[in-house]
Amino acid sequence: MGGITVGYEYTEDNLQAVGGAVTSYYENDMYGVSFSVNDDLAISYGVLKSDRVLNNGTTVQAEAESLQLSYSMGGASVKIAETSVDDASYVSGTANDSDGTTVALTLAF
Question: Are 85 and 66 spatial neighbours (Cβ–Cβ below 8 Å)?
Fold first, then answer.
């Protein structure tokens, strides 16, 4: 609608594994929104939440979110993404959190 795009996805991956401390299934929610400010500038935001559920009832959630900005002029594009991941590899604790910034320059001839 206009310059706004919104998306949502839900998935579930049933592994049907046997045992007490093995993964039974993953449940994932993802959504994103982007806005084209004009023909050259766009900004977007996305989130992924993934629950790992074990057969013994334990659940750990990994979460990632990212904010992106892109600017194009002629054959040149500059893209920046700021991303944060909490409880990577489905392991709780700040030691499993990470942040990153990506900067990309693309030139087309």
Answer: no
Q: In a 3-state reduction of DSSP, which class is residue 53?
A: strand
Record the tokens describing residue 88, joined without a space.
Answer: 């990577």
* Side chain identity at residue 35, one-letter code: F
pLDDT of 85 reads: 94
Rg over CA atoms, the chain: 18
What 3-state class would DSSP assign to 96?
helix
Tens digit of each residue's pLDDT (9 = 90 or more) over 37-49 = 999 999 999 999 9
Burial class (CB in 10 A: 0-12, 13-18, 19+), 52: buried
- Record the pTM: 0.81
